[in-house]
Write a structure and sequence with these properties.
Layout (H helix, E strand, L loop, with lengths): L1 H7 L15 E2 L5 E4 L2 H11 L10 H32 L7 H13 L3 H9 L1 H4 L3 H13 L5 H13 L2 H10 L2 E2 L2 E2 H8 L6 H12 L11 H12 L5 H11 L13 H10 L2 H6 L1 H6 L8 H11 L2 H6 L4 H13 L13 H13 L11 E6 L17 H15 L3 E6 L3 E3 L8 H10 L9 H9 L5 E6 L10 H12 L4 E6 L5 E2 L8 E5 L5 H9 L4
Parallel strand pairs: 5-6, 5-8, 8-9, 9-11
Antiparallel strand pairs: 1-2, 2-10, 3-4, 6-7
Length: 534
């Protein structure tokens, strides 16, 4: 009888049955839609594959994503490169490694030589730091030998990067991933007539700073200060060198990393370093509740929107800093400190500020957080301890604090209130989502509940891993039923929180949109879509 009814009316099919020929099976056995290649690549670039998912180990998840990227590059390398550059230039991703992998695949394996050359040409833009360059070299080397194009592409980085930045690489990023700057230089053989650049390159290879007769050049002063730091015996002397020569803390031997060195590092290191080392500053007694000047300086830096933009701070950078710092101990249990409440609050403010100015859409929003069992496994964006359900709560807070008419609910197989309000802290919202985790996944629940309860909604926003399967109604059908029952031209936004290839949003429908969780471009796109402007 059921099969006969389905044959007559396919709109009555359950989520474990294909609604139309375009649907594909997700990892949970439900039928959803496949992302376009561009959308899937964007998810990979922003969310990565760290930690795996409920249905796939990290290794399996990574292998699937890598095989997809390899195929995409073979089919349309130019498009893969364009998507990657758009994500990099917009600072849309929290980690560089996915973009570096795609760039390496294009540079080494693209069928078109012109596209391969284009990838090498943008290497300095994608690999902005010495660490990123060495990560890229590890990927590129695994994909083949050092031919002419590879040697020339790597050489150009060392020849073109500003010499002041090159000198910082020389003292900060000497080796990573089994590669050293010296290894790369010996293979690439960069050539330059500039005496200062040659001196820096020579130091990077053999650790010797040649005498060029003008040590006042900033780049060479950094290296000179680094060499002098090898012979000092106290952290006070090391701090004096840091301030005098503009040295980052990485230029100082680790056994001298005491309180004075950390104080100096607050002046000589950038905002990224500060966010990653707030716990260390507390551990050595620099950042304490009683030192008002230090607290004030930290708060001002991490909440300055211009500084966040200049430092290319991604919202996940700020969220990770808040999670780690607020717990009062290192991720691996190394070191303890007493968190300063004002700093914790400042990191929360930094999370929202890192998205930039977010305009409200002004429509009636229902935010549905997937709190099913599959959302409790894996990590998002490589942030330790940040599970998809926690990430959903954090991402939803951006909309909840922006939209004046929004309600947040949780769903698995049923729909329930989570008690999340705009005044919640990120920690409080994430805890409520975790505490409510239960059951199987039915992503149609928000639309079905709103129809049953007579709740007026213009914009449904579903935060999910798209592993839906438990419902008797497909999400697209549930949206249609809601629109028919209420007469409201409601829209559906799906926020994907794992780098799978699935979405519940029908790509052929203008009233459905799929975006990537923690994409810094997402809030503006969501606003425009909710307003009917895209």
């Amino acid at each position: 009888m059921k099969n006969l009814l389905n044959a007559i009316n396919p709109r009555s099919r359950t989520q474990t049955e294909r609604l139309d020929a375009r649907q594909v099976a997700n990892n949970a056995g439900g039928f959803v839609y496949a992302l376009s290649d561009e959308a899937r690549l964007t998810r990979f670039l922003i969310l990565g594959t760290d930690g795996g998912t409920f249905y796939a180990t990290e290794r399996g998840h990574t292998l699937q994503a890598t095989e997809f990227v390899k195929t995409f590059v073979q089919v349309d390398a130019a498009r893969a490169l364009a998507v990657t550059l758009d994500v990099v230039r917009g600072n849309r991703a929290p980690k560089a490694d996915p973009a570096l992998l795609v760039l390496a695949l294009v540079a080494k394996t693209a069928p078109d030589a012109a596209v391969r050359k284009a990838a090498w040409d943008v290497l300095p833009e994608v690999a902005r730091t010495g660490t990123m360059l060495l990560h890229f070299l590890a990927f590129a080397d695994a994909l083949g030998g050092w031919g002419r194009l590879t040697r020339r592409g790597v050489a150009r980085v060392y020849e073109d990067v500003p010499v002041e930045r090159l000198a910082l690489w020389a003292v900060k990023y000497k080796a990573r991933d089994g590669w050293s700057q010296a290894d790369a230089l010996r293979k690439a053989h960069p050539k330059t007539a500039d005496a200062g650049r040659n001196a820096v390159l020579r130091f990077m290879v053999d650790g010797v700073l040649p005498d060029v007769g003008d040590i006042s050049e900033p780049a060479l002063r950094v290296i000179e200060g680094h060499l002098l730091a090898q012979s000092v015996t106290t952290d006070r002397d090391a701090a004096t060198l840091m301030r005098g020569f503009g040295l980052p803390i990485e230029a100082i031997p680790t056994h001298l990393h005491g309180a004075e060195v950390y104080r100096a590092a607050m002046e000589t290191n950038g905002l990224t370093w500060l966010l990653r080392n707030l716990g260390n500053l507390g551990r050595v007694g620099v950042l304490t509740v009683n030192d008002r000047e230090v607290v004030r300086a930290v708060v001002e830096r991490v909440t300055n929107p211009d500084a966040l933009k200049r430092g290319r701070i991604h919202p996940l950078d700020a969220l990770k800093a808040r999670l780690v710092y607020a717990q009062g101990r290192g991720v691996k249990g190394r070191g303890e400190w007493l968190p300063v409440p004002r700093v914790v609050d400042a990191l929360e403010e930094a999370f929202y500020a890192a998205f930039g100015t977010v305009r409200p859409a002004g429509t009636r929003h229902l935010l549905g957080l997937d709190v099913s069992g599959s959302m409790t496994m894996g990590t998002v964006g490589g942030v330790p301890g940040l599970t998809p359900n926690m990430a959903a709560a954090a991402m939803s807070m951006v909309a909840l604090r922006t939209e004046p008419d929004a309600l947040t609910m949780g769903f698995a197989r049923e729909f329930r209130r989570l008690g999340i309000t705009p005044k919640d802290t990120l920690d409080g919202a994430m805890r409520k989502a975790q505490d409510a985790s239960f059951g199987a996944t039915d992503t149609a629940r928000p639309m079905l509940w709103a129809a049953e309860q007579g709740v007026k909604v213009d914009t449904f926003v579903v935060y999910t891993d798209n592993e839906t399967w438990a419902g008797n109604v497909h999400p697209t059908v549930a949206l249609d039923r809601y629109r028919q029952k209420t007469g409201i031209a409601a829209r559906l936004i799906v926020v994907g929180l794992t780098a799978t290839k699935f979405t519940i949003a029908d790509p052929n429908r203008a009233d459905m949109l799929d975006v990537v969780g923690f994409d810094t471009a997402a809030p503006a796109v969501m606003t425009d879509f909710a307003r009917g402007e895209v």
